[in-house]
Amino acid sequence: MNSATQARPSLVEMFSNRQSRMGIFFFLVMLSFHIGALQIFNFQWSWFAFGIFFISYVMKIVGVTMGYHRYFAHRSFKTSRFFQFIMALAGSSAIQGGVLWWAGHHRGHHHHSDEEEDLHSPVTHSIFHSHLGWMWARDCFKPIKYKLLDFARFPEIRFLNKNYVLLMIIQGLSFYLLGEYLGQAYPLLQTSGWQVFVWGFLFATVWTWHITFSINSICHLFGSKRYNSHDESRNNWLFAILAFGEGWHNNHHKYGWSARNGFFWWEWDPIYYMLKVLEKLGIVWDLRTPSPAQLVDINS
């Protein structure tokens, strides 16, 4: 049955159902973050505050794209148990749910891309639903079909997956305390706990949300198609820049197992460049990439 034709649950049913309560919780968290992020306009422009935002954004986007996405969801490279934990922790800072939940949903997305079972497809749902609304829907929190048994065996990964709300609180408090310390220790910075909290935590998180969520929505509607990927995934250069290479989405849907999304020299893919540096340092290894013959085989 199409989701649009399903009967709407009553308020009693919504609050008595755990999946519905989780959707309401996510909605309230995201609403609060958006309202809080607007407080940047209450502060005088500061290059220092912008620097805090940028550093936080890089941490969040790298954690999600390198860690949650290319490693946990697609296993496109190998690494140590320690660095695996670091990537999961960095990904958790983006506040997009637990690592096992996120990666499990993403594996399901690739199995049913732009089909009815794809929860965040703008082809079968609205663009708003594919961008944000799916995270508030009850179906979002059903038991995950594509469970990550390969990673769920690690207790530290299970801990991060289960306690992402606690990690969110600790992160927010840490940004506030950092700002208070810097404001008192270095008065010339003219900063405060609230400024660092708003710029580094709230605004950076909201910005990261919309950049990564646009891969689900905009990059299945607008852009070019190089490969026959059996869905509507598109290559979008703007979001390739903003999302550190994730915007080469048609490339990715053709070879989802690849550690590299930008297949040619002109396709900006900083996550892959970082992985190559980490490979040289011995931190990651066995990076999986398509062969030259596969790259030019556009219709298979």
Any overview of this molecule?
The protein has 300 residues and is mainly alpha-helical. It contains 14 helices and two strands, in the order αααβααααααααααβα. The chain has a two-stranded antiparallel ribbon with strand order 1-2. The radius of gyration is 20 Å and the shape is globular.
Q: Mean pLDDT, nearest integer?
A: 90
Please bin the fraction of helical residues: 55-70%
Q: Termini separation (Å)?
A: 32 Å
Overall number of structural domains: 1
Distinct helical segment count: 14
Summed up:
The chain has 300 residues and is an all-alpha fold. 57% of the residues lie in helices and 1% in strands.
Features:
300 residues; mainly alpha; two-stranded antiparallel sheet; 2 strands; disordered N terminus
List the helices and strands and how they pair.
Elements: H1 11-16, H2 18-37, H3 47-73, E1 78-79, H4 81-92, H5 99-111, H6 127-131, H7 149-152, H8 155-162, H9 164-185, H10 193-217, H11 237-242, H12 249-254, H13 270-280, E2 284-285, H14 292-296
Antiparallel strand pairs: 1-2
Helix pairs in contact: 2-10, 3-4, 3-5, 3-10, 4-8, 9-10
